């Protein structure tokens, strides 16, 4: 029974990683942009939620809703003012710009909020759990997992059922032809990054509710998120969810064997999947 | 003439810098030791990213392996730290073979993430090595370091304590390593293989069509830079004297700084890392009192360079002035006069 419990905890954890990864996957799939600052942007979102919550006295769940529009605007601005200028054949400039951005965000947060770790106070729901047959499930992990599925479902609907999604796919497949059809790739990219940061804010809420965070939390989370994206395959959002669950389950199993092996087990699962399938489990687009 | 100037400049600079421990303060020697080590790491990273197109975010893996290899030789094998350096470098190179097998399957941006994940695996795995202190790390025995060959002779030369002599010795080794790296990079880049590498970077299809094998060349660069990075890692930790997984495999110290140094100085140019490390040292000294501000400044400069001057300070300089004292290309052969018939 303990194994079943571990497996389910791992799946729930995977939901959180999938939330970290979903925005990344969207941006990566549409414009081949590897955003090394995504982890730090999530942490920035968590501080924004904390700030709004403290200023207004609202529950973090509501504060997160208020944080969504400014985060969308930030993503839009970031793409328009900065990232659109460096996207191109050469993958080095965007990588280095987002790397610089990561260092800037991390250290600005450090100056503003110090290295003390914070947590988002969700309230009594944090400690509640449901007994489902033989296993006990925390309400928060369950909500996190549900949100991850909802976000991936929503993004997929957006991607395959709307005009915006058609523009996303067209630009992803062939930006030049998309331009001939009246799509402006730069605008499409700006909206995509805006949406990615909306998803990042949702991820920030659950990150802050689940565990402590501090300004240096970003990069490690980013690495798990990237592993989830790569395991899932380029441009496949359901693949990203599956990738997150692979990492989550591997980490939970590793931790059950020896607490020091948790992270290591996740990385090893990543290496193992890529050795077998270098393009990930469900690749949609060619890179 | 064109090819004699760079070696002459290098020799003059090395001679001047070599005199420092005799005439300069110990704090300056320690500072410049760090600068020289960062230069070695930057030269290696520049070779990978600037010339071979392999953007690695995981070079700290090889720094850490080199350092742990050296520590294992000294603590477990009772060897001399200097011999340990070599073992550390070889261990890093040995590790780079399986790493290359794994990461070379990933292209472009995937490669960057793959190397990063590998470095984190190495960090976590070595944290399990209980004989070397596990997750909290351990210190290098003082006696082993102070018994390194030449320490007594150096004390006689510069005066001062044994610790100062150790600083001088590691400084000279770092200087020698940096000079050797510069000379080797220059020779390599002007060789047949180096030209092939630059051809692959500039136009992969054309390069293949004239018989250049990109994968073989890139794998060779990956292996050699792992060796250089590993030796440098060992040397760094002889001087630091204490190791822990987080310090030895630090993404910030051994890869992030190095990336900024190369980008600011000029990626894909040989003097770029030298210029970059000088700017880095200047910034660090200037902003020393303001905590993390210099990291923010560094990040902003890096972003600005990518936006406005992709080839960095050195690349901008050679383009503006048309002057390139360290040419990597060969002069076109003189036209052979056709015999009158």
Detailed description of the structure:
Chain A: One of its GO terms (cellular component) is plasma membrane. The complex is a heterodimer of chains A (287) and B (341). Chain A is mainly α and 287 residues long. Chain A has one domain (2-276): ABC transporter involved in vitamin B12 uptake, BtuC. In chain A, 75% of the residues lie in helices and 3% in strands. Chain A has helices at 2-31, 38-56, 60-86, 92-113, 139-161, 163-173, 175-180, 185-210, 218-232, 237-257, 262-276; strands at residues 129-132, 135-138. Chain A is globular, with a radius of gyration of 19 Å. The mean pLDDT of chain A is 90. Chain B has one domain: Orthogonal Bundle (ABC transporter involved in vitamin B12 uptake, BtuC), CATH 1.10.3470. Chain B is 72% helix and 1% strand. Chain B has 17 helices and two strands. In chain B, strands 1-2 form a two-stranded antiparallel sheet. The longest helix of chain B is centred in the middle third of the chain and has 29 residues, at 162-190. Chain B is globular. Classes of the chains: A mainly alpha (287), B mainly alpha (341). The interface between A and B is large, with 39 and 42 residues.
Helix content of chain A: over 70%
* Biggest interface between chains: A-B, 39 and 42 residues
Show unreliable segments of chain A.
none
**Level-2 CATH architecture of chain A:** Orthogonal Bundle
CATH T-level topology of chain A: ABC transporter involved in vitamin B12 uptake, BtuC
Number of beta strands of chain A: 2
Based on Cα principal axes, name the global outline of chain B. globular
Q: Write the CATH fold name of chain B.
A: ABC transporter involved in vitamin B12 uptake, BtuC
How many helices of chain B in DSSP terms? 17
Q: What structural category characterises the helix and strand content of chain A?
A: mainly alpha
Taking strands numbered 1, 2, ... along the chain, how are they ordered across the largest sheet of chain B?
A: 1-2
CATH level 1 class label of chain A: Mainly Alpha
The major β-sheet of chain A equals: 2 strands, antiparallel
Structural class of chain B: mainly alpha
Strand content of chain A: under 5%
Rg of Cα set of chain A? 19 Å
Number of domains of chain A: 1
Family (chain A): Belongs to the binding-protein-dependent transport system permease family. LivHM subfamily.
Subcellular location (chain A): Cell membrane
GO molecular function, one term (chain A): transmembrane transporter activity
Main location (chain A): membrane
